[in-house]
């Protein structure tokens, strides 16, 4: 099974399904989103959507109220195409630890979702995800996905690796190949057994090749659609791997295990 390990709700949902069909992708991990760049028809409207994105990934839109609309969109997409989408849910990071734990129990575990994410702590404050890791520990091997591209910093990646060491039962996925810090991300994930590296938004082909070579069992094909394209993301993985077990794991086998699909 081919699984895109990183995508966001599209408007309309069927446009996303069309991209998956074109790429030959069977299923996709689906995250909620507040910005919708796929709606933009010109530069002005795209700037509006990207301003919302800047707030989200900068940790400036992390309240429960800010999440509510995005959760509703995610619910609708999962209900419309349950055979194609694998639901993950982000949680607000500015809540008290006990409220984060209650949110994970009620909104993730209670609704039968497969993991937590994509978390977007403010730059320099990756430690804010620790209560989420504690909650994930309390519920077994719930995978936790954290934004890895800018404004995530190299120090944030080191913080994530340290936190992963404190919660070794939780699979911690760094998205977008760690952005411009991809070499450090590869090293940290390689040396931290419960960390994983998702490969979307890579602009350098040998970054993908080296990541898969160094950590073949813990690298994940992802597109970050609508920001990326499943066709291109899959082609890059297939360009740097040959047919066989490693390619199969990267293109879906590993995320299937993490999401409990096996």
TrEMBL record:
Would the keyword Kinase turn up in this protein's UniProt record?
Answer: no
Record's InterPro entries? Amidohydro-rel (IPR006680), Metal_Hydrolase (IPR032466)
Keyword terms of this UniProt record: Hydrolase
Which SUPFAM superfamilies does this entry report, sorted A to Z?
Answer: Metallo-dependent hydrolases (SSF51556)
Q: Name one Pfam family in it.
A: Amidohydro_2
The superkingdom listed in its UniProt entry is: Bacteria
Residue ranges of domain Amidohydrolase-related in the record: 3-258
Gene Ontology terms, MF aspect: hydrolase activity
This one is known as Metal-dependent hydrolase
Q: Which organism is it from?
A: Streptomyces inhibens
